[in-house]
Amino acid sequence: PESGKEFMRNFDLKKDAEAWLDQQTSDLVTGEWVDPQSSELTLRQFYLSWSQHQVWEHGTRLAMDLAVKSAPFADIPLRSVTASRSIQPWIKQMDTNGLAPGTVATRFANVRTVLRAACEERRIKRDPTIGVKLPPKRRKDAAMAIPTPTQVSAILECSHPRWRSFFAVAAFVGARLGEVAGLKVENVHFLAREIHLRRQVQRLSGGELEIRLPKCQSERV
Description:
The protein has helices spanning 14-30, 43-51, 58-70, 83-96, 101-120, 140-143, 149-158, 161-172, 177-181; strands at 188-189, 194-195, 200-203, 209-212. By secondary structure, the protein is mainly alpha-helical. A hairpin with a 4-residue loop joins β1 (188-189) and β2 (194-195).
């Protein structure tokens, strides 16, 4: 390989040795060759090293940590992770345990991101998530209950005056809960009839609160 390092294996039969050499040569030519020692890394070991260099928001990092931690194959060598024996059973296990299809899809997507990064860094030959089937998601119109104008009006009428504006903004502006909680008076431009979303409030582990930019820097009017 490009590193100049030699790799050797011993075989009892010449035909086995030639088959191995042909495969290694083919992988080198096609760019699929993987250092055998690199593929001995586990998913968790690779993730701990790779994740240190990612520019993520706090919530994204927590979600990625949780996804890798929940994978039952996190501590086996990367080369041994397969769709049929590793990832598909994990998907079925999460579905059987009652996790919502959206949650299953998110955890799978996060682990797939790590495995694809391992492919790009030549830790494994191919992405083992290809062909994995996810539980079907419910239709949005079936999964979401949109309150009627009458219901919204009833909520506003019976709410405490201190919270009435909060509920009204949540109902009519379409902002995320954390963004509504992060609003300040100076973010409301009364004469222009505009609300400027510039920050959000997020709850951290332990119950602490953090104020930061909206998700994916989605500051907007």
